[in-house]
TrEMBL record:
GO CC annotations on file: plasma membrane
InterPro entries (alphabetical): LSM_dom_sf, MscS_archaea/bacteria_type, MscS_beta-dom_sf, MscS_channel_2nd, MscS_channel_TM-2
Transmembrane parts of this sequence: 35-55, 76-96
Domain of life: Bacteria
Entry annotated with the keyword Disulfide bond: no
Name by which UniProt lists this protein: Small-conductance mechanosensitive channel
């Protein structure tokens, strides 16, 4: 009886070793695909950085008065390039995979995905609107939801403030978009077109 149980244990052990060896063979067989996928994604990451640099050089002077819009263009373009790179790397890493399969999978669970990413999408859209409307700019001292600090960064998901005590405050963009905001940093008023015309006439006279 004990001898038969020993044979059974040895049989299970042999199956486990065979399964582990099969997994290792599969891993080493897919290693070249994984390396190619990583290199491809790294190339797209470099392309995203080059895109941000090019946009900064091309539109930096034109959008000097609206730095948030320039920041938005850089981040949307860079994120789009990284997303394309991720899909291409996924196709290389998983032979037989197509983006259509991913879309169909998301379509099946669209309701679950919608609930799961509801807050993320709200923060994303709020961040885009904050960057476009510019109720405040990076470097402004603002108060919102009881938090006061200097705006350090306006990301797609959240806005980062630096408090007076040096603390780092992260506020979701959805809350910041719907809550009242007090901007303590004074900005010089922009001269109107009529004022500019009058001053030009006085200089001419």
């Amino acid at each position: 009886m004990m001898l038969s149980s020993s044979f059974v244990s040895l049989g299970h052990y042999g199956q486990m070793v065979s399964a582990a060896n099969e997994l290792m063979r599969g891993f080493w067989a897919h290693t070249p695909y994984l390396m190619m996928a990583l290199l491809l994604f790294f190339a797209f990451w470099l392309l995203a950085q080059l895109f941000k640099w090019f946009v900064g050089r091309l539109l930096g002077k034109r959008l000097a008065a609206r730095p948030n819009v320039l920041l938005l263009l850089k981040r949307i373009g860079g994120t789009g390039i990284l997303l394309i790179g991720f899909l291409c790397a996924l196709v290389v890493a998983v032979p037989g995979f197509t983006p259509g399969q991913l879309i169909s999978t998301l379509g099946i669970g669209s309701v679950a995905v919608g609930f799961a990413f509801k807050d993320i999408l709200q923060n994303l859209l709020s961040g885009i609107l904050l960057l476009v409307n510019e109720p405040f700019r990076i470097g402004d001292n603002i108060t919102s939801n009881g938090f006061t600090g200097v705006v350090e960064d306006v990301q797609i998901r959240a806005t980062t403030l630096r408090g007076e005590d040096g603390s780092r405050i992260v506020i979701p963009n959805a809350q910041l978009f719907t809550a009242p905001i007090t901007v303590h940093t004074g900005r010089p008023p922009q001269p109107s077109a009529s004022q500019t015309t009058d001053s030009h006439s006085e200089e001419t006279l």
